[in-house]
Amino acid sequence: MRAVVAVLVFVSAIHAGIWGLLRDQEQAPDFRGILPSVSYAPFEGTGHPDVDNIPNAEKIRADMKTLAPLTRAVRLYSSTGGVELVPPIANEAGLKVTLGAWIDKNSDRNEREMLSAIELAKRNSNVNGIVVGNETIYRGEQKIDDLIKLIQRVKGAVNVPVTTGEIWNIWLEHPELASSVDFIAAHILPYWEGFSDKQAVDQALIIYQKLRDAFPGKRIMIAEFGWPSAGYNLKGANPGPFEQAVTLRNFVSRAEAIGMEYNIVEAIDQPWKFFEGGVGPYWGILNAAREPKFSWTGPIVSPDYWKLATIALLVGVLMSLPILRLAGPTVPQAVLLSASANGVGAWLATVFAYWNGHYFVFGSAFALTLGLILLVPLVLIAMARIEEIAAIAFGHAPHRLIVKSAAVVPATIGDSFSFPKVSIHVPAYFEPPEMLKATLDAVSRLDYPNFECVVIINNTPDPEFWQPIQDHCRTLGERFKFINAEKVKGFKAGALRIAMDRTAADAEIIGIIDADYVVQPDWLKDLVPVFADPRVGLVQAPQDHRDGDRSLMHYMMNGEYAGFFDIGMVQRNEQNAIIVHGTMCLIRRAAMDMAGGWAGDTICEDTDLGLAIIEHGWLTHYTNHRYGHGLLPDTYEAFKKQRHRWAYGGFQIVKKHWRRFLPGASRLSRDQKREFSLGWLNWLGAESLGVLVAILNLIWVPIVAFADIAIPDKILTLPIIAAFVVSLLHFVAMYRLRVPIKTGQMLGAMVAAMSVQWTVSRAVANGLIKDHLPFARTSKGGLSRMSIEFQAFWEAVIGVLLLLGAGVLIASNSFKQIHEIYVFAAVLVLESLPFLSAVAIAILESSRINLFSFWRSTGVRTAELIGLRPVAVPTIAGPSQPVATEVRREVIDGHREAARL
């Protein structure tokens, strides 16, 4: 324990050290003077001034008092809507005012603006100029000649200089405009031209010199220069608090040195300017709370940096505390877990900084809140997977796992141990008779002295399916009981209840195997002795399959199944929290009776019963040794239907059992509750969340690409990428450490696992709105044929839309080159992979490359072409006759086809 505490302290110290190393500190020229002018808008909040954002005299007076120590003058952009209150109040604070008359296409408003500006200039001695229109020509709302007429009209009515505010190139392109004004008011905003903050000041001075060269002797004022403190980049222009501080201090220093007239845009952040792209609200040297964003002297640092570091460290420490509850964690295991916890703490601190440093309208606040809510389970899932990596890669070896070579009977039992009677139940529903016969033959070969086998065929009226089995049971002897039950309710659970009624009274243990499973002779001999411990209620062996070599698709599927039984089940077994999956399961009859037996209210009756047994306090055990092999689903359609049934049944179990996870509601331990809860979240939640987020992101694409608002920030998108990387590393690491398959099959298993994301999410959606769906049998044994329908239609639609969305984002971002949009596009590509995996398998199933024979023949041909193998010359012979096995296969196929017809 001391070592673990030392690890937590060490990791926290490293985390603090990283914050210290990453602390940014910039140098820039000190400015101890007073700014000549700043742009000022007397508005607060996110309401638009034209609608419901009307300033009042008290707020303006407070603003003027705040700005008086910082500037000599303020520039206004309107003379109506409450802005007309500014000049007399500014005069109280000793501030000059450059009036603004807002000019657009609305002639009535233009008239009101000009009349108000003229009147204000006449009545207020602190007015030092009037700017008629702001970027009116740039916006195309007035023609040059018309604007000149408006300027001349105002000039004729006042005794102060009159001009218009335009982007610098407008002045160069329209020298007649310069001739009509008293001075040139040029806007130079390098951000909007894509220049970096390092280039901004040089660019401004170059343009200033161009204007002086173009208009010698003319008074020139840089009427707008600034840099945003937050928002999105534009090409090489990156907004940020450090960038703003350094740029403005450099500009002011150099402007003062050459005697430039300038106005800084702007005095106070304007949250209502959210429509001006991501940077619109963030041009102020004061934030919306009227607090300085940076100091004009000394090193430039973040005033909240250590507060954020403290938040990150506290969250990291708190999330690391559960490590102390682990049973003997190793040092590397604790390091990885604590590092991941501190990583989450750093992310949460970044989220806090973003929330605290940005302004939100309802839509953006809703989008961010929804995104963060969806990220919470995603982070929990990622943390659970990191914990599993740590436990398997660096933790102790499993100690509860039943190993084939280990003694399972306690030494205290002695020679008097007797073999309890086992009743093996084999439910079947329209199963191929030959397949079921092979299962029963394997049962008959069990090396165990005391068992019976109850075969129950339910709801299968066709005698071609049940008659051969009845005859075969008679052949196998009295140990084998045959039941043909029709009109059975409750699906498989209903059949198993009937089997229980026919079970021998002295049977103490119930064994369950599916109709396709061929068990090994030592299944019972090895595992029944575990029940010598009277606390043991259930022993589970893994599923495996004997037909993984049927095709490349089946090879992939078999690898995917193996991961659950070699990774998840082994780890859950350590907490006595295994998932019971029916076949290859041994259950103590007393435990089954206590749990209420087979319930028919879910379509995963096995998992339901297993959880009920655990809830009653029984011990369960698991072995990953393969004691039986079944058959894989015949088709990809069958594979998806099986996964849908499992997921829907799992959700039914969640709805049925969640109350028993409440304190005192069952005998479940805290660790068991955690394992089941995280297991459901990691499977049902992860797949459903993946689909939900993908669809929401698709909806968001046109908003980002065409509306130019609410671009998902990196605090939302980068965690998605990080979670994907964690899942990828988890899959590869766990398979390499626990699943004995080749790399190629592992990669195929990864594709197969991703391909059912849509299927699982549909099952969860069905579980939310429907209480009962019919039991769907998984087609096995080769009786079912591949459907003519494409089995990944909706996956193809969503996957293609995600790729198209990424393409649209990249294409629409070619000019602005906003980093967040590229990251968002990358997220869409990653989110498309599970959908495209389903498409790939559906295409693979119907193609030649799905056959191993194709790859073998291709290998032979390739070897012949490159000379590694001599070309085989066929011999000429007469037509061959089919061998007996081929004739028999054709006859059987003919009978099956006739039966279908």
The largest β sheet comes out as: 8 strands, parallel
Shape, please? elongated
Number of helices: 28
> Strands of the largest sheet, in order across it?
1-2-3-4-5-6-7-8
Q: How widely separated are the two ends?
A: 71 Å
Total strands: the figure is 17
Low-confidence stretches: 410-414, 880-901
Average pLDDT level:
91
Radius of gyration: 38 Å
Structural class, please? Answer: alpha/beta
Which percent bin holds the helix content? 40-55%
Beta content comes to 5-15%
Name its key features.
901 residues, alpha/beta, eight-stranded parallel β-sheet, seven-stranded mixed β-sheet, 28 helices, 17 strands
Can you offer a commentary on this structure?
With 901 residues, the chain is of the alpha/beta class. It has 28 helices and 17 strands. 44% of the residues are buried. Mean pLDDT is 91; it is low at 410-414 and 880-901.
Question: In brief, what are we looking at here?
Answer:
The protein contains 28 helices and 17 strands. It has 901 residues and is α/β, with parallel strands linked by helices. α8 links the parallel β6 and β7 (220-225).
